[in-house]
Amino acid sequence: MTGGNRGIGLAIAQRFAEAGDHVAVTYRTGEPPQGLFGVQCDVTDNAQVEQAFKEITAHQGPVEVLVSSAGMTRDTLLMRMTEEDCTTVIDTNLTSAYRMAKAASRTMLRARKGRIILIASASALYGAPGQSNYTASKAGLIGFARSLARELGSRNITVNVVSPGLTETDMARALSDDQRTAILQQVPLARIGQAQEVAAAVAFLASDDAGYITGAVLPVDGGAAMGH
């Protein structure tokens, strides 16, 4: 899985590992999470993505479940947003999912089974001022997933999206008290989500119990985006 060295991605990786699955995570900088097999990979570099899959396959066998969780923000109003702010966020959040899914689907197609799960955001459904680049990248994941669901479904490969709301991560902790309060006013459950709750949704979609679910968007957002 991508983005598995911190935050939501790490919680997902740990959930799979605790269930006894063989887990591989990609990371761009620093060190891999303790106890997990890590492969250094910049998901915006196709050559590094291809090499990561070779290393993972050699170490653990073919990839059966792909979770694309890598993400970044460069929040600013449109009039202040540079083209680099836009393209960098879209490349990291959206185009990287294309690279990873393309690489993973090769072995899934041969095996005639697989699970692809993309991590979007509640903002992809309702929009967010100052986040047009981020929101566009996450909304793009939904269209991408639904196209792949139709393309790959006959080979028993499901493609779904998990859409978290504000979740207790480093990104959320960087918000000011006023920002957190404003966001929570839009959440019917009136609290911030936990990374483990997102991980539980991902684990379900990867399980046999979700074998007839594909092209779905599963919100884990306390009700923030319902109706969108």
Describe it:
There is one protein chain. Helix content is 46%, strand content 13%. Helix 3 links the parallel strand 3 and strand 4 (114-119). It has one domain (7-165, 196-220): Rossmann fold (3-Layer(aba) Sandwich), CATH 3.40.50. With 228 residues, the chain is α/β, with parallel strands linked by helices. The longest helix has 29 residues, at 83-111. The strands form 2 sheets. The chain has a 4-stranded parallel sheet with strand order 3-4-5-6, sandwiched between helices.
Low-confidence stretches: none
CATH superfamily: NAD(P)-binding Rossmann-like Domain
Please provide the ordered H/E string of secondary-structure elements: HEEHEHEHHEHHHE
* Mean pLDDT value: 94
Kindly provide the radius of gyration, computed on alpha-carbon positions and rounded to a whole number of angstroms.
17 Å
Number of helices: 8
CATH class: Alpha Beta
* Content of β-strand: 5-15%
Q: Give the CA-CA distance, first to last residue.
A: 28 Å
| Tertiary shape | globular
The fold-level CATH name is Rossmann fold
Q: Let me know the number of strands.
A: 6
Count of distinct structural domains: 1
Largest sheet: 4 strands, parallel
Give the strand line-up of the largest sheet.
Answer: 3-4-5-6
Structural class: alpha/beta
> Helical proportion?
40-55%
CATH architecture: 3-Layer(aba) Sandwich
